[in-house]
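Lab notes, practical 5.
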Amino acid sequence: MNNREIGNHLGKSPASVATRIKILKLSRRETLRRWTEQEDEYLLKYYGSKSLERISRRLQRSIPALESRLSRLGVYGVRAYTGKITVYELAKCLQVDVHTIYNWIQNNRLPYKMTRARTRNFIGIDVLAFWKWAEQNKEFLNFSKIPRNTLIPEPDWVNKQRKYDYYNRPKYENKKWTEEEDARLWYMFYEEDRTQQEIGQLIGRSRHGIQRRLNRLRKKKLTT
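Output from the prediction step:
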């Protein structure tokens, strides 16, 4: 490992590690091997579909070194030792609230498995299984807000959907709801008997956004 990788592992700064190396009079047996373009390509291609252990054996590099390299390459989920990512990592990749992911799991059949990592259990989501689910549930996601190769391996259809969403998603999809909009939404849905899709077209929001807001308004009225 280099000083930064050692520091990440021990919770120390690279400078602190360098100082400690001098104090302990340590020397490396060989010079640090620089990453090649071929290694980067292999890592990006198979990360998420193969475990870090397998990639480590193939590239002859330690798991902490792989994690550090993934972080430098801007790839999320670098703690996913099992080829799965956590709910929080997925939410960060997709730029959505973590509760949205839990909602997909509970109500929209997003596949998951309980995974144990070291001393705790967490929900693990397989990247390939997620993309398969996402292809069947495109209306839940705004792909134009997901940077390329944020969640790899990324299927070919995603980039096409990314372009489609950029030009076709409502402009104000993530704009905060006002009290006036809430009242208008409630009236159009319950008094005018309009569909969620119709309301979305009228006020410039997605059908899924309308559905989520109606659910929140119902819960709010039940508790007041």
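Observations recorded by the TA: The CA atoms of residues 103 and 110 lie 9 Å apart. Confidence is low (pLDDT under 50) at residues 78-82.
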